[in-house]
Write a structure and sequence with these properties.
With about 270 residues, this protein is of the alpha/beta class. A hairpin with a 2-residue loop joins strand 1 and strand 2. Strands 1-2-4-3-5-6-7-8 form an eight-stranded mixed β-sheet, sandwiched between helices. Helix 4 packs across helix 5 and helix 5 packs across helix 6. It has one domain: 3-Layer(aba) Sandwich (Rossmann fold). Helices cover about 40% and strands about 20% of the residues.
Length: about 270
């Protein structure tokens, strides 16, 4: 796995998957994973996307094989956006398609609003509302839980809503263990800042074509609640898939990836 250092405190690991025909010049898709995950979270998407596009999958600052962040690290959305812009500059990619899942979709929406010059299209999959009411108030309890029991315990406690009622038990166990690899120090700062980020001012500023994907009974909000903020994005579409999960990129990987490919093909030129 290659690495890149956008700042002195970070060695970022990333993957580039490209199975396009070697005589073509494919466009690039940047995939942003969710909280307590890494680039591996996109395992089911890569075979579909990489046949048609160059796919870049970074481990976000603090997660996966990228440098863990200390508990006192001062997280900001702009710092994360700058990390990803620097990575794409390093790879020689001026404009690209951006796809974000869960909190990665929060970062992606802020990215689209603040750096419109870099994006061709935006897709967000199973992402929270622009402001998660009550999230900040829950942080002290979450901090105590992380410090006492670690990240995997939190993942197990919240996995039913994340993966819904139809995900296979072996898959649930895999995701719990996978998310549990996250450094506690990273999680302490991230949950108190990025996971509670207020991007209400960013959403109406998104100018590129945008696809929002959710499920019928997502724990992140009803279809009508999702539609309310989706309609604030001038050039956007909402896709509602059956089910009750909110980690749609995992539970509906094939359908969501196919929809993303279709959307990019229609709107990404």
């Amino acid at each position: 796995m290659p690495t890149f250092s956008p700042s002195a405190d970070l060695t970022m690991h990333y993957e580039v998957d490209d199975f396009t025909d070697p005589w073509t010049r494919p466009q690039t898709i940047l995939l942003l994973h969710g909280n307590a995950e890494s680039s591996l979270a996109w395992y089911a998407w890569v075979p579909k996307l990489a046949r048609h596009y160059r796919v870049v999958r970074p481990d976000m600052r603090g997660f996966g094989r990228s440098t863990a962040m200390p508990a006192e690290y001062q997280w900001t959305l702009d710092r994360l956006i700058n990390d990803f812009c620097a990575l794409m500059d390093e790879l020689g990619v001026a404009r690209f398609h951006l796809v974000g899942a869960k909190i990665g979709g929060t970062v992606a929406r802020a990215f689209a609003a603040r750096r419109p010059d870099r994006l061709v299209t935006l897709t967000v999959v199973g992402t929270p509302p622009p402001l998660r009411v009550g999230a900040a108030e829950r942080v002290p309890d979450l901090v105590r839980e992380f410090q006492t029991h670690g990240v995997e315990h939190w993942a197990r406690q919240s996995m039913a809503g994340r993966l819904g009622s139809n995900f296979p038990p072996a898959g649930v166990a895999w995701w719990c263990e996978f998310m549990g690899r996250t450094a506690v120090s990273t999680q302490l700062g991230f949950m108190a800042t990025i996971a509670c980020a207020d991007i209400r001012a960013d959403v109406p500023q998104i100018a590129c074509p945008t696809l929002v994907i959710t499920t019928e009974r997502s724990g992140l909000g009803s279809v009508e609640e999702m539609r309310t903020w989706q309609r604030q994005i001038p050039d956007s579409e909402l896709l509602v898939l059956p089910g009750d999960s909110y980690h749609v990129a995992a539970t509906h990987a094939d359908a969501a990836a196919d929809a993303t490919l279709n959307f990019i093909a229609r709107r990404g030129h």
